[in-house]
Amino acid sequence: MSRPQGLILYGPPASGKDSVTAALAALDGRYQQFARLKVGSGKSVGYRMGTTEQLQELETAGDVIYANSRYGNVYAIDRPGLDQAFAVGVPVVHLGQIDGIRALVEGYPATWMRVLLWCPQVVTSKRSEQRGDIDTADRLAAWKATREDMDAHPDYFWDLKVETVATKPERSARLIDELLHAWTGAATA
After folding, report:
1. What does pTM read for this prediction?
2. What is the phi-psi region of residue 184: left when phi exceeds 0, alpha when psi lies from -120 to 50, beta otherwise?
3. C-alpha dihedral sign at 62, 64, 65, 71
């Protein structure tokens, strides 16, 4: 039996993960952003808001595949959430840490396509301000952390690299979709 297919979009804040995911969903409704469990405050769109107790229960059960802290919140990728996401389509997981990618690839049985979405720091700053983020300084610190993460893992393998300054979300989505379908031999949407 073949493994289910999932998609990981890695990149700094404002590199286009949300825009590319929306373009993927418009191209084929099976693509759906994986809603990580978020414990904390702030933006709730795109997350399953949870409590510290829920996170502890998942950890006790061994169901937290990866968790990280950023912006004063905890973000978790959990096995039950992924099970639900795979049941309805192709989950698109947004990550900004290579350790998170490794934990996901090693910790959940699926065929994971790894896509690097990149933009320069000045673009992150501009996009963050344009979308009205009140924490642009924190986003720029996260951009720097992502750059340092990449520099610490120079030989990390990417199935696809996309410069989002030069490539529109719709084109990025088409490239990702075509590559994913080439893996399975299925016809593109």
Report:
1. 0.91
2. alpha
3. negative
User: Distance between alpha carbon 63 and the CA centroid of its chain, in Å?
Assistant: 19
Nearest to 86 by CA among 52, 64, 61, 112: 112
| CATH number (domain holding residue 141) | 3.40.50.300
Number of structural domains found in the chain: 1
- 3-state SS assignment for residue 16: coil
CA distance linking residue 137 with residue 147, whole number of Å? 15
Quote the pLDDT of residue 187: 39
67 located within any domain: no
pLDDT digits (tens, 9 = 90+) for 96-126: 899 999 999 999 999 999 999 999 999 999 9
CB 68 within 8 A of CB 75: yes
Q: Confirm if 2 and 30 have CB atoms less than 8 A apart.
A: no
